[in-house]
């Protein structure tokens, strides 16, 4: 474990990660949108990390799910251990040459890996890459991501797309929560022996999937 990026040692023990969005009361009542904040927890519900999205009000209002952002993820001691960077890119099959790409750093300033959207006319597809931009895993979502009254699963697969090794799930949290507070609950399930850097990249993939498919939906995050 002494070779792991500082702050990622704890991920070495986990095969399940929970991500919960924090929504302030004033934001929920007035419908205003402030910078997103998240708690990242272990399966017992204990907070491991805290994440804050950084961008401008202009980006959130005008670009919304397409917006560029930087998400800083800190441990319980307040030390930034992961940084997720998303540039402004397209979100349409009409522009397959400029699809989504997200960079994950750990520690900040050092590349841990990438999440790259793949063009597909029917299914949401992404490739998880390591720091050398070598393909490691695939993520394949369902045809329909509305997921009314049920969880929505994005399967984590081997590169041959035949073997499923985990999933990223958007948990259904009830009609009132989803429609009126727009809160998010996600779960990431991966093999416990997966490289911790790739686990960090999976957290970044979860944020990207949230913004692309759930933020402005009734089942939204």
UniProtKB/TrEMBL annotation:
One of its GO terms (molecular function) is phospholipid scramblase activity. Keywords: Calcium, Lipoprotein, Palmitate. InterPro entries: Scramblase (IPR005552). It holds the Pfam family Scramblase. Transmembrane segments: none annotated. Its cofactor is Ca(2+). GO terms for cellular component: plasma membrane. Belongs to the phospholipid scramblase family. May mediate accelerated ATP-independent bidirectional transbilayer migration of phospholipids upon binding calcium ions that results in a loss of phospholipid asymmetry in the plasma membrane. This is Phospholipid scramblase. The gene is Plscr5.
């Amino acid at each position: 474990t002494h070779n792991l990026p500082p702050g990622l040692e704890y991920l070495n023990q986990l095969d399940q990660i929970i991500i919960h969005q924090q929504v302030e009361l004033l934001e929920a009542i007035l419908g205003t949108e402030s910078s997103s904040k998240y708690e990242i927890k272990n399966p017992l519900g204990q907070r491991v990390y805290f994440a804050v999205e950084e961008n401008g009000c202009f980006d959130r209002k005008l670009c919304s799910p397409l917006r560029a952002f930087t998400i800083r993820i800190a441990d319980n001691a307040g030390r930034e251990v992961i940084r997720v960077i998303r540039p402004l890119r397209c979100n349409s099959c009409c522009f397959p040459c400029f699809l989504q790409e997200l960079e994950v750093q750990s520690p900040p300033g050092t590349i841990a890996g990438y999440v790259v959207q793949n063009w597909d006319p029917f299914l949401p597809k992404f490739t998880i890459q390591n720091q050398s931009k070598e393909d490691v895993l695939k993520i394949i979502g369902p045809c329909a991501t509305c997921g009314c009254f049920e969880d929505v699963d994005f399967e984590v697969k081997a590169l041959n797309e035949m073997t499923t090794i985990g999933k990223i799930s958007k948990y259904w949290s009830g009609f009132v929560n989803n429609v009126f507070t727009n809160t998010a609950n996600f779960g990431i399930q991966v093999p416990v022996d997966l490289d911790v850097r790739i686990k960090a990249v999976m957290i970044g993939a979860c944020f990207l999937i949230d913004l692309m498919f759930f933020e402005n939906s009734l089942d939204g995050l």
